[in-house]
């Protein structure tokens, strides 16, 4: 079963295109990070703790690039 959660971010009607673009990039990276975390850690529960820590470092690198 796949669960989809939606988060609505209130945006002022006078927001500039540049700020909206920055917000879109930020939310896309966050969404990707959450997806990657769920895929690599939750669905691969049988892996060793050391491997999970390595994934955590990889996730941080990918999110904050």
Helix-strand layout with pairing:
Layout: H1 17-42, H2 49-63
Helix pairs in contact: 1-2
Poorly predicted regions: none
Which percent bin holds the helix content?
55-70%
Average of per-residue pLDDT values: 77
What is the count of β-strands? 0
Computed Rg: 15 Å
Cα-to-Cα separation, first versus last residue: 31 Å
What characterizes the major β-sheet? none
Order of helices and strands: HH
SS-based class: mainly alpha
Report the portion of residues in β strands. Answer: under 5%
Count of all domains: 1
What is the number of helical segments per DSSP (H or I, 4+ residues)?
2
Shape: elongated
What does this molecule look like?
The chain is mostly helical and 65 residues long. It has one domain (17-63). The chain is 63% helix and 0% strand. It is built from two helices and no strands. The radius of gyration is 15 Å and the shape is elongated. It starts with 16 loop residues before the first helix and ends with a helix.
Key words describing this protein structure:
65 residues; single chain; 0% strand
Quick summary:
This protein has one domain.
């Amino acid at each position: 079963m796949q669960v989809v959660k939606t988060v609505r971010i209130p945006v002022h009607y006078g927001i500039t295109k540049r700020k909206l673009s920055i917000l879109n990039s930020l939310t896309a990276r966050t969404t990707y990070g959450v997806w990657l975390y769920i895929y690599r850690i939750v669905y691969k529960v049988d892996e060793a703790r050391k491997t999970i820590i390595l994934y955590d470092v990889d996730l941080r690198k990918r999110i904050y690039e």
